Amino acid sequence: MKIFEFLDKSPVNFLAVNTIKEVLEAAGFKHFDTTKPLSEVKAGDQFFVTKNDSSLYAFRIGSKPMAESGFHIICAHCDSPTFRIKPQGEMKCEGGLMKLNTEVYGGPIMSTWMDRPLSLAGRVMLRGKDALHPETRLLHIKRPLLVIPNLAIHFNRQVNDGVKLSKQKDMLPIIGIINEQLEGGVLLNLISKELNVEKQDILDFDLYLYDATPTCAVGLNGEFISSGRLDDLSMVHAGLEALLAANKSPEVTQVLAIFDNEETGSQTKQGAGSPFLSTMLQRIVLAQGGTMDDWFRAVEQAFMISADNAHAWHPNYSEKYDPTNHPQMGGGPVIKINAAQKYATDASSAAVFAEICREAGVPCQYFVNHSDVAGGSTLGNILAASLPLRGVDMGNPIWAMHSCRETGTLADHDFCIRAFTKFYDEN
Ligand code: ZN
Which end of the chain is least crowded, N or C, by CB within 10 Å? Predict the structure, then answer.
């Protein structure tokens, strides 16, 4: 699946996991039910597991046992900053206007969500066979449905000098002019119609706003890619494409781990702070006839690429960047380094990744924070709490990280897929 289609089919975490699932199943990967015993695992087996419908872990088993060769893992995250619809979120205003009460998810650049056609996506829980087993249905409303209008400049002449936005007051989206009384409310009626289910069977939902304008190419030669959620779905897509392009009978086991909740600190059962992935890999070692000691040996020999986007040099703000390490758009994947160890990268793992890029014929560059700018963090070090892997933090250069629409390049995306494929194929 091409990157544009992948992004448009993945407006939020749940839908992203579903898109990955479809792609993997079409490529012959089996969905393993984690409640079943994992009794036998053979070389060449391809399968994946999910957690909470919002994280996914795919495995292609190598011909060498993990105790002998470790494993090659690429990590990325499928969540992005957005706004979640609160329970009892309907707020009726004058003139029949209806707005929705929302809560911020992660750290969006809030002003970029204004005056833009938005819509809703996520999951809906339906009454199941008993209270503990509700049925999950995904919801992706594919038409523009909401807008968060700005205040006109005439009411705030200082608007271009900077505006402080309140999450509770300024950021509530408007869903329409509704004059009739709808039994159960607007949202319940909308969901029931979209999913073709009875209103009384809808128990709850996780619904989020997303940018309803599709992904597009920008630039004189179409060199840029403009989309919501490039952080981190572009890295998810690159990892997925690499897994599909890589050797189907590898020596070393290949792993793709797509975590949820990176944007809120990763400390959930489906986030990188969870022992779920580590437990799943242990189950594979044991199913191969290995012991717990074999598992520890596997960890010692494994290598991780933690893939999360980096900040491309912005020509209007060059003072924000490190004077000697500021990655260029189109200059290839970026190795991220931080002396305070917010990134997993060290000289040893950076050397490995740079060498993989060289072998793949791909340029690579470095990002280090301007020393007076704090910078962000990512998956690599959080995962280290349950899986102490040798690994590198890297990502592709993008502008406007956490904007409703971010910008990257198609060239870097292609470079990244080539480097990742080479990594999976290494022995
Ligand atoms: Zn990210």
Answer: C
DSSP 110-179: GGGGTTS-EEEEEEEEE--SSTT-PEEEEEE--S--BB-PPPPGGG-TTGGG-----TTTTTPPEEEE--
> What CATH number did the domain enclosing 381 receive?
3.40.630.10
Return the beta strands (E) in 260-409 as ranges: 303-307, 310-311, 334-337, 365-368, 390-395, 397-398, 406-409
248 shares a domain with 181: no
| Nearby residues for ligand 1 (ion, Cβ within 5 Å) | 231-232, 308
271 alpha carbon – ligand 1 mean position (Å): 13
Q: Distance (Å, rounded) from C-alpha 352 to C-alpha 357?
A: 9
Q: Is this prediction's pTM over 0.85?
A: yes
The CA 76 to ligand 1 mean position distance, Å, reads 8
Q: Do 302 and 368 share a structural domain?
A: yes
Write out pLDDT tens, residues 155-204: 999 999 999 999 999 999 999 999 888 888 999 999 999 999 999 999 99
Q: Please tell me whether residues 169 and 307 are part of one structural domain.
A: no
Q: How far is the CA of 372 from the centre of ligand 1 (A)?
A: 21
Distance 122 CA to ligand 1 centre (A): 19
Which range among 29-43, 68-82, 281-295, 375-389 shows the weakest confidence by mean pLDDT?
375-389
Distance (angstroms) between ligand 1 centre and the Cα of 402 equals 8
d(CA 344, ligand 1 centre) in Å: 15
E strand spans, 301-381? 303-307, 310-311, 334-337, 365-368
CA of 186 to the centre of ligand 1 (A): 33
